[in-house]
Amino acid sequence: MEDKHQWPLYEVFIRSRGGLDHKHAGSLHAVDARMALEHARDLYTRRQEGVSIWVVRSTDITASDPADADSWFEPARDKVYRHPTFYDIPDEVKTL
Amino acid sequence: MYTQGLDVHSPEPPAPLDEGLLEKRFLKRVDAEEKIEPKDWMPERYRNTLIRQISQHAHSEIVGMLPEGNWITRAPTLLRKSILIAKVQDEGGHGAYLYSAAETLGVSRDQLVEQLLSGKAKYSSIFNYPTPTWADIGAIGWLVDGAAIMNQIPLCRCSYGPYARAMVRICREESFHQRQGYDLMLQLSRGTPEQKRMAQEALDRWWWPALMMFGPADTESTHSSDSQRWKIKRFSNDELRQKFVDFTVPQAKFLGLTLPDPLLRWNEAAGRHDFGPIDWSEFNRVLKGNGPCNAERLAARRSAHEEGAWVREAAMAYADKQRVRNAKIAA
Alpha-carbon dihedral of residues B304, B310, B313, B315, nearest 10 degrees? Predict the structure, then answer.
């Protein structure tokens, strides 16, 4: 029984300081992207938590399914040779 | 604090696994302190418990704006007015974080608001008490927000991810609420004899209702065992209430105010304060809708909702019109 007049949902991403990534902060309802930005400022940055905000319609996000997490991420598990610590370098060899 | 929209893209699982097996797996994850996320399988009872608890919590934040909002226009100084506005704005924000967290469980914002306005959903009884003097604003910050923090800090570790993350954000902001309240009480209790009396009377009004905020005694609490099993609730009502009393007694002493409980005393052997019996008949009366302000609070929410309807509709209509216009320009 979704009301068609219900304002759509937006996800909010905030860059907390220059040089850092935008990070998911939460979500909110707004009629359009501009209102979502304004509401995000009032809702998520009342104490200078951010220097930049992204908003995106929640329905525009495609997400991986947690039920598939095992098969989805498992292939990386046995590839330890992708990590530098896999290689045993003799102590005599420096700066490597 | 995640997205209900994500669900749109997830196909139904092809062959549903045995419920018992799924529940066993779920409990194992909870026991291992893993967070449960919106799209993860969860028992229906867990989902419903969370929807009830998170939405009640959200409603409490929203209704909680009313007793304090009552004093914004009458705050004694510009600074106190600014502080109070910031606090009330925070409460609105907390309501919004929590509604979002509840929505991840598959309930819509409209449904939640409807449940509050129809009187079907409950909210914290504490907000059905009046705020007759300025000192009540101090007592609310110190005691009511203090009790809320005591309840909320363990919720930052609750098993449901979106709720836990909302609580982290809320707890960060809540500390300011308690401290500004104590600061206000401190100022009054160091003021004129009239001001000190006003502070004492507010303390007398709020002490017992604040203790009731922790909910029924452990022997009477109906929802506790499942919630503890699921790591939604980490401590019992009585444990948290005791901790609150132990924290608050020295704070009251510093203010030079007296807690209105003749049976309150330090129990050396037990290493805690003993306190008098709580009047649960009053708690139940207020909970059932017969407190001093129940009708007034709901009426205020209903009229705010109805009087704001045209704004919500106009904003949506304007956005729709802009979308059509922009599509035409693009074409």
Answer: -90
